[in-house]
């Protein structure tokens, strides 16, 4: 778990004191290098050791009691004691603030309250912990020399990439430690080592969890995370930049890439400080890119500390860079920093003329954490110059301003026409195809040669090994050459047409495409990524149907129409409209999932759309490796905390599939069968959302407010013109209701038909509410009669029809995320 960028305001350094009417000489300026060394090589202070009994430490809902034992503190750095080690008996108690956090805690501990004993503990802090304890203990006359518990625990955490040391470093050298107060407890319990954090620089100050093995890596499972002081968790991230101590509104990047898969760059980042008195700025940069120098705008070299190089380890050491400024920041006064760095592994050569260019971590950004300030909520202007091998083509985010040749090099310049959340690039031996969709220029950059993986498949088909399996379903049952050339270039023209089609559909539903250009290129893996104006698609999606059949790939739609559309829609969901926090990221991935399904309806048919929805519902009801139903692991709003050792795939299943289903349900509530454009109400709502938050970040509550602006009378189940009932159940909560539908008909005296309906709900709390859609079938036709407001476990009602219906059903359009028995 990485630590958040830090807006730290802490107790004064270098202050003056008055003694007998005279001003004492100012304290010497702190030495950052000695502070850093003291933090990385912590030594215990034998003069600061004490026996403790029933000593309490309370930080919001974190309640720690040192029942009995010995506590010893570290030697100070810059006059500040920052750590302690404890041996003895104690207990940790944390009471969750709401039902969602209780549900998450129970998932990990089987208990609604965390109450556990411990025998060893380390504490790291930049708040008043040392002074608080000092007042309650009597120092031993000659304490022990000190064991290595604190140093060992720190090293183990830093080896996992926790980046706590840079966080403490920043705080100690800050002008005011109060606003940036940090308290970090690491206690040895029956659950293993459990961490409890109180970090005032995070919107959610309280975090409790532990490191756990997930496959070959360690993952930090977050048991609880919430804002302190009873703050409404929906408001904690209302201003996404509230806890950022600086922003980066402008980047100027001069980069060079080579055929040997190396990247070198000089990046000028314009820093706008938001709080005064900061000596340390923390950045994120892939640790495989080693920094040669960092200079200020006058060319003076600055001291910096960078995380150890990750190389090909599964577990990262972290990707932080701590930069020491010569003078503390002043709010509103811009600081320009020039980073010069280079390295391998950020670009990987994956075939002849094929390169995988990592789209993140290749330029310095604000250091953030899982529960800190969200990068995608912020925007920057980019000016990027690339030097690349002349024999290859290069494409990057933004508008290409110029292209020239310099010997064996191609020199291209790119500029963002609007502030962007991220910037990326790709290069290789491409076939480049261009076409227009309205005012949008579409360029397809498709590799001429297969990547290594595709090449191995090509060779296996063209030259099967003697004795290889033969018969139906094997390569030897496929005629030689049947797969053709497995090169993305072969499908470049088709890909251009398909991408134009996705833009055409999404502009109808979501409003104008936000940029003037759209570039699409292939990457050698099975995933995709949508950067602003630049989409990376798996090379598999460039294969034609014959090739996919020959390779035994059955999920044709999921890898083609749906996949392309999902990634295309991120131009709206993630870039035109960003998310304010990890709680709101479902509005990117879930909305993109819906968009992929929607495009499939237009590209294929509505039956295929319903199949995808049913598959999504089935996935939510599946169980993970520990027997949990995915939908029950946690609500959508828990966000990336769903990805844990308890259920490693829950994030992808819940955020994508349930998030998409939520948007589908809203679509069906607004579906107008009487209008030729059935979706006109839904389109109006979505266009209002993208226009209101054009190139801005939105929260779940912001989206809910747009839904409430466009809701129909039928949707007002609480009679207050609010959609709390829906969002509380399907976004902030969990549950898939089961409905049993029964009806009877009876002829009336005037020749009409009385219909009696009974709808019985189970599997969810009695307070659950739904709009249950009722359909009537006549011959080959079907129409929705309306909605039954199922606000009770059993809903009964009668109505009159002019004639006896052939058949009545509910949920024919998969309107509800529900199981139906009828």
Quick synopsis:
The chain is an alpha+beta fold.
Explain the overall architecture:
By secondary structure, the chain is α+β, with helices and mostly antiparallel strands. It has 17 helices and 39 strands. The strands form ten sheets. It has an eight-stranded antiparallel beta sheet, sandwiched between helices. Strand 4 (62-74) and strand 5 form a beta hairpin. It is globular, with a radius of gyration of 30 Å. It starts with 17 loop residues before the first strand and ends with a strand. Mean pLDDT is 91; it is low at 1-27 and 471-480.
Task: Describe this protein with a few key phrases.
7-stranded mixed sheet; 8-stranded antiparallel sheet; 17 helices; single chain; 34% strand; 822 residues
Present the secondary structure layout.
Blueprint (H helix, E strand, L loop, with lengths): L17 E2 L2 E2 L8 H9 L3 E16 L2 E13 L8 E12 L4 H11 L4 E12 L3 H6 L14 H11 L4 H9 L9 E8 L2 E8 L6 E9 L2 E10 L19 E12 L5 E11 L6 E5 L5 E7 L7 E3 L13 E5 L10 E9 L3 E5 L2 E4 L7 E2 L14 E9 L3 E4 L2 E8 L2 E7 L9 E4 L1 E8 L2 E8 L4 H11 L29 H19 L6 E7 L5 E3 L2 E5 L6 H6 L5 H4 L1 H9 L7 E3 L6 H18 L2 H16 L8 H4 L16 H20 L10 H13 L3 E3 L1 H11 L13 H7 L7 E10 L5 E10 L7 E9 L2 E10 L3 E8 L5 E4 L8 E3 L1
Parallel strand pairs: 11-21, 27-28, 28-30, 31-32, 33-39
Antiparallel strand pairs: 1-2, 3-4, 4-5, 5-6, 6-7, 7-8, 8-9, 9-10, 11-12, 12-17, 13-16, 13-20, 14-17, 15-16, 18-19, 21-24, 22-25, 23-24, 26-27, 29-30, 33-34, 34-37, 35-36, 35-38
Helix pairs in contact: 1-5, 7-10, 10-11, 11-12, 11-14, 12-14, 15-16
């Amino acid at each position: 778990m990485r630590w958040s960028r830090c807006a730290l305001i802490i107790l004064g350094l270098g202050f003056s004191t008055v003694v007998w009417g005279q001003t004492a000489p100012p304290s010497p300026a702190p030495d950052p290098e000695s502070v850093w060394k003291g933090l990385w090589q912590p030594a215990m202070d034998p003069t600061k050791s004490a026996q403790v009994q029933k000593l309490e430490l309370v930080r919001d809902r974190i309640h720690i009691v040192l029942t009995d034992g010995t506590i010893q503190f570290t030697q100070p750095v810059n006059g500040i004691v920052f750590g302690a080690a404890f041996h003895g008996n104690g207990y940790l108690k944390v009471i969750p603030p709401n039902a969602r956090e209780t549900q998450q805690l129970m998932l990990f501990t089987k208990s609604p309250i965390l109450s556990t004993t411990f025998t060893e503990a380390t504490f790291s802090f930049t708040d008043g912990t040392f002074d608080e304890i000092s007042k309650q203990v009597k120092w031993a006359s000659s304490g022990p020399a000190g064991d290595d518990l604190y140093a060992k625990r720190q090293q183990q955490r830093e080896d996992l990439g926790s980046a706590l040391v840079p966080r403490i470093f920043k705080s100690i050298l800050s002008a005011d430690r109060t606003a940036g107060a940090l308290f970090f407890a690491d206690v040895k319990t029956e659950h293993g080592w459990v961490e409890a954090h109180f970090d005032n620089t995070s919107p959610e100050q309280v975090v409790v969890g532990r490191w756990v093995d997930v496959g070959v890596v360690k993952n930090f499972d977050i048991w609880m995370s919430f804002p302190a002081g009873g703050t409404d968790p929906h408001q904690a991230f209302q201003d996404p930049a509230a806890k950022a101590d600086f922003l980066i509104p402008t980047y100027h990047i001069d980069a060079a890439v080579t055929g040997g898969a190396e990247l070198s760059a000089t990046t000028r980042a314009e820093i706008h400080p938001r709080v005064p008195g900061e000596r340390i700025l923390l950045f994120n940069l892939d640790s495989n890119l080693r920094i040669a120098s960092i200079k200020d705008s006058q060319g003076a070299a600055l001291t910096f500390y960078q995380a150890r190089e990750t190389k090909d380890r599964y577990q990262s050491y972290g990707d932080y860079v701590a930069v020491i400024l010569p003078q503390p920041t002043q709010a509103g006064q811009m600081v320009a920093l020039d980073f010069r760095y280079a390295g391998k592994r950020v670009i990987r050569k994956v075939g002849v003329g094929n390169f995988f260019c990592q789209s993140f971590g290749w330029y310095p950004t604000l250091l953030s954490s899982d529960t800190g300030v969200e990068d995608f909520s912020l925007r920057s202007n980019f000016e990027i110059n690339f030097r690349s091998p002349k024999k290859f083509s290069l494409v990057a985010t933004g508008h290409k301003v110029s292209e020239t040749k310099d010997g064996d090099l191609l020199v291209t310049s790119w500029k963002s026409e609007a502030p962007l959340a991220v910037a990326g690039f790709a290069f290789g031996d491409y076939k480049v195809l261009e076409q227009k969709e309205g005012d949008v220029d579409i360029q397809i950059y498709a590799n001429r040669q297969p990547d290594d993986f595709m090449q191995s498949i090509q060779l296996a088909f063209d030259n099967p090994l003697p004795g290889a399996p033969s018969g139906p379903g094997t390569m030897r049952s496929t005629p030689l050459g049947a797969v053709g050339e497995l090169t993305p270039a072969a499908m470049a023209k088709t890909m251009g047409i398909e991408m134009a089609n996705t833009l055409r559909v999404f502009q109808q539903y979501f409003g104008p495409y936000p940029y003037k250009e759209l570039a699409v290129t292939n990457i050698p893996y099975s995933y995709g990524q949508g950067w602003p104006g630049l989409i990376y698609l798996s090379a598999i999606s460039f294969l034609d149907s014959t090739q996919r059949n020959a390779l035994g790939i059955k999920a044709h739609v999921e890898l083609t129409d749906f996949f392309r559309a999902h990634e295309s829609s991120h131009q709206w969901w993630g870039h035109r409209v960003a998310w304010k926090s990890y709680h709101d990221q479902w509005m990117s991935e879930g909305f993109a999932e819906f968009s992929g399904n929607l495009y499939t309806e237009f590209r294929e048919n509505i039956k295929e759309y319903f199949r995808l929805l049913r598959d999504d519902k089935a996935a939510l009801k599946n169980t993970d490796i520990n027997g949990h139903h995915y939908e029950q692991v946690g609500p959508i709003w828990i966000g990336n905390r769903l990805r844990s050792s308890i259920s490693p795939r829950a994030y992808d299943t819940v955020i994508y599939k349930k998030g998409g289903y939520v948007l589908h349900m809203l679509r069906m509530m607004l579906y107008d069968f009487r209008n030729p454009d059935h979706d006109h109400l839904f389109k109006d709502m979505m266009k209002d959302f993208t226009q209101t938050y054009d190139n801005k970040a939105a929260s779940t509550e912001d989206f809910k407010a747009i839904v409430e602006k466009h809701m129909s009378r039928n949707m007002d189940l609480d009679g207050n013109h609010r959609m709390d009932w829906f969002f509380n159940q399907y976004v902030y909560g969990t549950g898939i209701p089961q409905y049993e539908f029964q009806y009877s008909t009876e002829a009336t005296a005037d020749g009409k038909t009385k219909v009696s309906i009974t709808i019985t709900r189970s599997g969810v709390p009695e307070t659950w509410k739904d709009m249950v859609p009722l359909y009537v079938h006549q011959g080959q036709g079907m129409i929705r009669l309306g909605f039954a407001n199922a606000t009770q476990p059993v809903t009964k009602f009668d109505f009159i029809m002019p004639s006896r219906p052939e058949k009545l059903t509910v949920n024919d359009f998969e309107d509800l995320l529900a199981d139906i028995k009828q």
